[in-house]
Amino acid sequence: MSRRDTRVPMVVKLPSDQDASGRSLGQEEIDLLTRVVRSGTLTSTKGSLVKELESRFAAMLGVRYAYACTSGTAAVHAAVAAIDPEPGEEIVTSPITDMGAITPILYQGAVPVFADVDSRTLNVTATSIGNALSDRTRAIIVTHLFGNPCDMEQILGLAEQRGIPVIEDSAQAFLARVGDRFVGTLGAVGCFSLQQGKHITAGEGGLVVTNDEKLARRIFLFINKAWGYGDPSPDHYFLALNARISELQGAVALAQLGKLKSGVAHRRAMAERLTRQLSDIEGVETPVIHPAHEHTYWRYCLRIDGSKIPGGVQDLSAALRKMEIPSAPRYIQKPAFQCEIFQKQRTFGKSRYPFNLARPAALDYSDEKFAGAFDGLEHILVLPWSERLTGEQVDYLARSLREAVERLKGGAS
Predict the structure, then answer these.
(1) pLDDT tens-digit series, residues 369-399
(2) Exposure string (b/e) for 47-84, b if CB count within 10 Å is 16 or more?
(3) Could you give phi then psi for residue 247, rounded to 5 degrees?
(4) What is the CA radius of gyration of the chain?
(5) CA dist., res. 360 & res. 366, Å (int)
(6) Are 323 and 294 a contacting pair, CB within 8 Å?
(7) pTM, full prediction
């Protein structure tokens, strides 16, 4: 649109995964919820739908064990508890992730040690993990951010050399693949989230998967207060919480599971459509994906070059807001280690535990150690995405981005 053009541009409203416009909730969920309510059995210890959810999710991923729990955070917590670190041992993780994937480490008495990320994908790498390892490292947590898999071949090779288990935070990466295998099935344990905005939702909830019988046993127990349901002489075997979901959540998640494959396929098709339309815009880089990986687009992210687009991500985001397109510059405002919990070591009373057991190098959050994280956050722009986007809406998003970039380059406000 030229500066002299006084026409009011047509605004196309985009769906939001925070309400029905961007979610695939419908009659299937209502039918299963009705079935649960009419049964009168809302607890998953006596009901059947949570068990069916677990069985079907395990079959879909091709793993031996899957367990439902209250959140993605609870899923990570169960995974860490299954690994069972000694107090003061270290777990290497990403600084670009939700705090819910980090606090379980502290709750289990271990020390999070942060590995830098690739500035273009914001995923940890084998090199950055290698730089963070020590003789105290007990496990590695990788986050497949936005649905884009980490380079698991190299990471698993490094972990195998050191005899260190890998936990996959796949909360944003349902059905993402590395070769012919789904993420979450490559390491020792995989963790998924059913939170409102994920690929499928029950409002809140999580799933934990593994092929390891011993880890599966500890995961099951941790979710169930360490009570040995089904054992000849059950007891509470160790310190654990109640992290079960109800049959009501299981009903919604089970109905959603039946829509997961088609929803992921649609997300990918719409992402490919958008990528084609943005690939020639100078200063805009579309998602970088390993040729052997399959991205499943929890969100669609751009890298914006501020030297070519005046004002960079902040001004571009502001321009998109005027077109009623919400976007998130930076994704998160700061790396996890800059939050107060790490800067002031606020944990259990005034004890600082488990920070008080850490070696000094594990708590070194110097900027120069995280060049990729800071550079990546400075340039990333996260666009809204859901399984309900239409081709027309994607085309509108592409046109709006192109127009916003042109206006910024032309000096228009």
Answers:
(1) 999 999 999 999 999 999 999 999 999 999 9
(2) bebbbebbeebbebbebebbbbbbbbbbbbbbbbbbbb
(3) -65, -25
(4) 22
(5) 12
(6) no
(7) 0.95
